Amino acid sequence: MNLKGIRQKIILNTLIVTIIISAVTTIVLSISAMSLTNVTLEETLVPFAKTASKSIESNLHIMADRIFMIGENRELSSEEATIGEKQQVLDKATSGIEFVWLALYTKEGKLYTGKGNSPSDISGDKLFQMMQETNNLVVGDTYAGEDGLEVSVGMPIVTEKENTYYLVGSYKYDMLDDVISSIHIGYSGHAFVMNESGQVMAYPDKEFIRQGENIYSLYKDDTKLLSVFDTMKTGRIGSASVSLDGEDTLVVYAPVRGVNWYLAIITPKSDFTGVVNTAIMVNIGTTLTLTLLAIWFIARFAGKISKSLGNVTGRIQKLAEGDLTSPVEVMMTNDEAQTLSNSLKDTVERVSGYILQLQNALEQLSAGNLDVNVSNQFAGDFVVMKDSIHSITDFLNQLIHDLQRSAEALNHAAQRVSQSALLMNESSGHQSSSIDRLLEETDSISRDINIVDEHARTARELMEQSMERLSKGDEHMENTLQSMKNISHNASEITKIAKFLEEIAFQTNLLALNASVEAAHAGEAGKGFAVVANEIRDLAEKSADSSKRTAEMIEHSQKAIEEGSRYANLTASFLNELTSMSRQTYEITEDLARLVGNEKSSLENASLDITRISQLARQNLESSSDVASLSGDLAQQAQSLEEMSGRFRLRSDAEGRDAE
């Protein structure tokens, strides 16, 4: 453990707290200053922008009033006034007012008469179109003329015969430039005026106006600033914060009444936050200086505390290491550190006394003397230690006393267990022999069952083959019966044919007889025909005889076939009965084989069970031998335990009861 740790912690915590306070103070100061600067800028610049727009409006009103005053001249609206008289009015007006040019135009926008470099045609100008649309005085946009930047103002003039002229005068840009140039906000702030399409009407750099720059094109990549320009065109007065070229910038704006112009002032906030930043840096420097001074004073104070606590910590560490004799150094600091040192000194002295008494009692216990008593007074939690020593002593006395009685009883029990273990070992030996003989007989039965099972399988296979042969014989017999039925049917058909032939022979004989009669009637001419008729009759008789013999032979064959069919049916019936008997025999053989298989499986399970019993019997035999051996060891251990418990010197029964 580092004794200087508390000093470092005090310094570190103080430094952290100081830094946190300084940081919070600086942050609050910065935020407050920035917020105050923003509010001040907005509250100052918004009215300033409004005032600047009013100044531009005033200048434009002056320009418009001058044109209006010239337009009220009667010569300009009179039809009787000549062009020379109108020109004199214009000359007189330009002598008193600084016009760049002043002219009177026809309703087609053509030059009627004018002074200075008056354009010959303004019909295509926006100013002329607006005068035609509004039929009122109009202030035009700033443009680049031959003599520099100019601002035109025009109004319609209606004559007595309602002919319309347009009076247009062009002023120098100086009237707007005076207002824009006078706006100096910060170091780089500037103002500008744009029309409703974003074209620059007034700008500190006149080159922007000459080139016809458009504000929307200049800041096309800054969407937020473009949205501010859109807000300006609504005619409201306000302000907005934007980021321009990575710098926080304030934009204030106001409309120029009477024309569709809008004034905007753009100024970086950094121009006004320099003083705030300087104040923040001074605050940080002052805070750092005060922090270093505070750390120096705290380090000196923490050194004294650290030294005093270091002595106390070192002594406590020695006490933790078991040193109860070294003195405690007390520093006179007149604070809590001195009180802590005195308390440690008293604690060490008392603890040392308690430990010596407890040590003496424990040494006697370790020597086997359980008749120990701590008589001195203890204070505080050490009373619990004293009571614990007494409780331990009482417990050990009771324990050893009970242990002696238990050792004696255990010795007698161990001897009885040893005798029982010897008897169990002998019984286990006889049991193992009987199980071995049973296992041999089971193996013999198993071999016989295997032979019977093999014969049953063979008989089942033979019966399966017999069943297959009988099934095929049955099929052949059915085929034979079907063939005999077919032969009998054919014989019946042949009999019908023979009868038909016999009938044909009879008809032929009749025809031959009739032919002979007719030949006899014919006389000599019919002799040849009579001979033929006789031959036909002979053939008919022979055919009839042959048909009769064929019918008789077919009849005998049909009787033989019917007899064969009867015997074949008897054979088929016998085969069916034989098949049924064979199927029953096969089912019996199948059941016998299944039963033999079940008996074999049961015998195998019984053999496995007997094998397990044999193994368990051997294990019991081995365990009984081990138990017999262990019981002998147990008897020896019980005797040793009885001898060991007798080595302790116990309290008398009366003292034990008093202690309880």
What tags apply to this protein structure?
660 residues, alpha+beta, 13 helices, 10 strands, 71% helix, flat
Structure description:
Mean pLDDT is 76; it is low at 654-660. The chain has a domain at 455-645: Orthogonal Bundle (Helix Hairpins). The chain is of the alpha+beta class. It starts with a helix and ends with a helix. The chain has a five-stranded antiparallel beta sheet, with helices on both faces. It has a five-stranded antiparallel beta sheet with strand order 7-6-10-9-8. The longest helix is centred in the last third of the chain and has 141 residues, at 382-522. It has 13 helices and ten strands. β4 (148-158) and β5 (164-172) form a beta hairpin.
Q: What overall form do the CA principal axes indicate?
A: flat
Second rung of CATH, namely the architecture of the domain at 455-645: Orthogonal Bundle
CATH homology-level superfamily of the domain at 455-645: Methyl-accepting chemotaxis protein
CATH level-3 fold name of the domain at 455-645? Helix Hairpins
Helix count from the secondary structure assignment: 13
> How does the major sheet shape up?
5 strands, antiparallel
Span from first to last CA? Answer: 48 Å
Helix content: over 70%
Q: What class, by secondary structure content?
A: alpha+beta
Low-confidence region ranges: 654-660
Topology of this protein?
Blueprint: H1 5-71, H2 74-77, H3 83-96, E1 101-105, E2 111-116, H4 126-134, E3 138-145, E4 148-158, E5 164-172, H5 174-181, E6 190-195, E7 200-202, H6 206-210, H7 215-218, H8 223-232, E8 238-244, E9 247-256, E10 261-268, H9 270-320, H10 336-366, H11 382-522, H12 527-645, H13 653-659
Antiparallel strand pairs: 1-2, 1-5, 3-4, 4-5, 6-7, 6-10, 8-9, 9-10
Helix pairs in contact: 1-5, 1-9, 9-10, 10-11, 11-12
